[in-house]
Every structure is written in structure tokens, then in C-alpha cells.
Design a protein that fits this description.
single chain; about 290 residues; alpha/beta; Metallo-beta-lactamase, Chain A; 14 strands; globular
Length: about 290
């Protein structure tokens, strides 16, 4: 079995667990609007759309959870999943690709996601390997900057605002419904994980967030990569946190301080950590972002 550990588990526990008890995981669904839900289990939030055109999902969590995810979807539609949109390439959002692909779903993602899913990668901060997917798990449709899907009465726009959490990020916007799925550029567990070795960048994350905020208004419903339903105001507060930490780190760089000296100033002071993310490793993420 592919070596994979839930990033969400790390966030909640702050520890390393080599094996998740998937039998104990329960998939839950939360209403967003009629015909739109998000599912939670173990891994990233799954967006779900059902209607007269069928079913599509955004992300698919871990492979051992596929049958549970399908069972939850079946409570809302008897149709099979027609499309899977990957918000990015990380395994806690895409590990079910091979199962859904083998079942006939067409996978859609940014072109960089297909490239990264075709190769073995190390998620260095977690010291974990993400192995290449076989052909059934790779995106069949890719895009570079923007694309649109017209499905179930929705105009669904996919945007790539540049590198942020990774260099594979896709933001999914249900235009008429005023719903946005952000993937992991926006999360609700505190300090976010930014995968610098795999194309992520703190400055880029801030730019992506401003792009998403520009799509939203006070009524927009935001499905984050992890955590509960959010608002535009929540995103504004989140990007303010990122900018504050970034600016503190940059001031240290301008002053000629070393990484350890900058870390000692506690650039993340005043902001909650997120399990395995703390002042030391998030300061390193911010610092490395200036030199990538």
C-alpha cells in the first residue's frame, strides 16, 4: 500500500502515526446549498455536486475510504461519480484517484498536478513518500490558468493563481451559487502547511488568497481545504496573519539575521499553531519562501 498519512491527523494530534484505522473513520456531509455539500472524513474536505447531469466531486481523500465516500454520495444520488477535480496533488486530497478513475470517473487537475502525480515525491516536513499513481489515477483533463465546467446548472470555474500551497493548486468557483472550494491554500487549523520543496511559497500563498478574496463577497460560502465552512471575512483574517508573519521574517532577513536568529524573535507570536506546525518550522517555511 502507498505510504500515506493524513495531514489532517497531524494537524489535530501533532504526532506521527504510521497507520490510520480507516475502519473507524466516518464520512459526514454538511449542506452548503441545494445540490452542493462538503464531505469530511480523513483528509481534505470533499466538495460534492449532484443534479440532473450527474455527480462530481472535488478531491477524494484516501484510497481505503473510497467505498465509504461512495456510500455517502449514494445518500444524495444514485449516479456514479462522473468527474473528480483535484485541488492539488497531495495524497490526503487525491489518494482515491486510482479507485475513482478505475470506476470511470474523469479526473481534472492543473497540469502540474498530473506531472507531480506521475512521479515519486517526498513531503519533506512530514518525512513521507508520495508514490506515483498508475494511469487510472492521473488527471485526463488538465489546465494551465483557467477552465470552466458547465454541470448541474452551475458554471464551475477552475483558477490557478500561481504557486501557493504547492505549484499544483486549483481554486474551484461555483459562480452562480457563490461557493468556492479553496483546497489547502486556505485552511482553518491555524498555521498552514506550505510545501516549499514541491512549488509552494508563502508570498505565492498570499497572492493566491488575494485572488480568491477578489472572487468573494460577504455572502460567499467558502469550503476550505480542512475545517468548517467559512466566509470572506475569515479569509481576510487568515491572509492578514500570513502577511504579518511574512513581514516579520523579511525584516529579519533585511537586517542580516540568520534563520535561527529570526526564529528566536518568534515571528508567529500571537497566532495559533496547527499541530505539527509551530514557530520553528513555519518560520523556516517563510524564510525558505524568500529564496525559492
Amino acid at each position: 500500500m502507498r505510504k500515506s498519512v493524513s495531514l489532517l491527523f497531524f494537524v489535530l494530534s501533532g504526532g506521527l502515526q504510521a497507520q490510520t484505522d480507516y475502519d473507524a473513520i466516518r464520512i459526514t456531509a454538511t449542506d452548503v446549498l441545494p445540490g452542493i455539500w462538503y464531505l469530511q472524513g480523513d483528509g481534505g474536505n470533499i466538495g460534492l455536486s449532484t443534479g440532473e447531469d450527474g455527480v462530481f466531486i472535488i478531491d477524494d481523500q484516501f484510497a481505503p475510504l473510497t467505498e465509504k465516500i461512495k456510500a455517502k454520495i449514494a445518500e444524495f444520488s444514485s449516479e456514479p461519480v462522473k468527474f473528480v477535480i483535484n485541488s492539488h496533488f497531495h495524497f490526503d486530497h487525491s489518494d482515491g484517484n486510482e479507485n475513482f478513475g478505475a470506476g470511470g470517473a474523469i479526473i481534472i487537475a492543473h497540469e502540474n498536478a498530473r506531472i507531480r502525480m506521475s512521479e515519486d515525491h517526498v513531503i519533506s516536513i512530514l518525512e513521507l513518500d508520495q508514490l506515483a499513481y498508475d494511469e487510472t489515477g492521473l488527471p485526463e483533463i488538465t489546465f494551465t490558468e483557467d477552465m470552466s465546467l458547465h454541470f448541474n446548472g452551475h458554471t464551475v470555474q477552475l483558477h490557478h493563481f500561481g504557486p501557493g500551497h504547492t505549484d499544483t493548486d486549483a481554486v474551484i468557483h461555483f459562480v452562480e451559487a457563490n461557493v468556492i472550494h479553496t483546497g489547502d491554500v486556505f485552511v482553518r487549523y491555524g498555521l498552514p502547511f506550505i510545501d516549499v520543496p514541491n512549488g509552494g511559497n508563502l508570498n505565492g500563498m498570499i497572492r493566491v488568497m488575494h485572488g480568491i478574496i477578489g472572487l468573494a463577497d460577504e455572502n460567499t460560502k467558502i469550503i476550505p481545504g480542512h475545517g468548517e465552512l467559512a466566509s470572506r471575512a475569515d479569509m481576510v483574517a487568515y491572509v492578514s496573519m500570513l502577511e504579518t508573519i511574512r513581514d516579520r521574517v523579511y525584516e529579519g532577513i533585511k537586517a542580516g539575521m540568520t534563520l535561527s536568529q529570526i526564529t528566536a524573535t518568534e515571528p508567529t507570536r500571537g497566532f495559533a499553531g496547527g499541530g505539527f506546525l509551530n514557530n520553528e518550522n513555519f518560520t523556516k517555511i517563510a524564510y525558505d519562501s524568500f529564496f525559492k
